[in-house]
Specification:
It contains four helices and ten strands, in the order αββββββββββααα. With about 210 residues, the chain is of the alpha+beta class.
């Protein structure tokens, strides 16, 4: 009787499909972005369906039936599938992730008589704030001197003289030059004119 039970037990075990789970993959995304949850389903049994779901709590994302009918869960408006482009690509695109999407996702399908499970752990991070270059000051910082280190405030540099201090001498010089020129012209006219007391000699006087 014992010899009959052992072969019967082996037959029962061989008829039950086994399940294998791959190593959990980590995916990091920023809040508000779209992320791809990978699932490589090469050589999967196309006569069997596959599905995506979340863990803790367990929630169905979608399930593709053998008839290619899709049973959607609560992610219909946020999930894009790639299986229509390639039957060996069961990955999905999750849109506009939030802090609530921080959980573990599993993709399960059947390959021959083995149930394969791919697990993805999604970590959602807040996008780091970027510094605005427009608010940065372009004025270089003052180099500390010995006096500033001692607490001595340097005096203000002397202000340049105003422009009218340079205009006054120029105007005065022009007036002097004009006055001297006028005197010179008057004397020159007097030198060139004949003296009224002197009469010119006639030709008879010369004889």
């Amino acid at each position: 009787m014992r010899h009959l039970c052992v072969p019967l037990f082996l037959v029962i075990i061989s008829g039950v499909p086994t399940q294998t789970a791959d190593k959990v993959r980590a995916v990091v995304g920023y809040e508000g972005d779209d992320v791809i949850l990978p699932c490589n389903c090469v050589n999967r049994n196309l006569k069997e369906g596959f599905k995506w779901k979340t863990e803790n709590p367990e929630t169905l994302i979608f399930k593709v039936e053998p008839t290619e009918e899709i049973n959607w869960g609560n992610y219909k408006t946020r999930v894009v599938m790639f299986v229509n482009e390639s039957s060996s690509n069961c990955s999905i695109l999750l849109k506009k992730i939030t802090e609530d999407d921080k959980k573990t996702y599993t993709c399960s399908f059947k390959m021959k008589e083995v149930h394969k499970v791919h697990a993805v752990n999604l970590k959602v991070m807040q996008r780091p704030a970027t510094r605005s270059t427009a608010t940065r000051s372009t004025v270089p910082a003052a180099i500390p001197t010995k006096d500033s280190q001692r607490g001595i405030v340097p005096s203000e540099p002397p202000k340049p003289p105003r422009q009218y201090f340079t205009i006054i001498p120029v105007v005065a010089l022009l007036l002097i030059v004009g006055y001297l020129g006028n005197i010179y012209l008057k004397h020159r006219r007097n030198w060139g004119a004949p003296d009224q007391g002197d009469t010119p000699l006639s030709s008879e006087d010369n004889v």
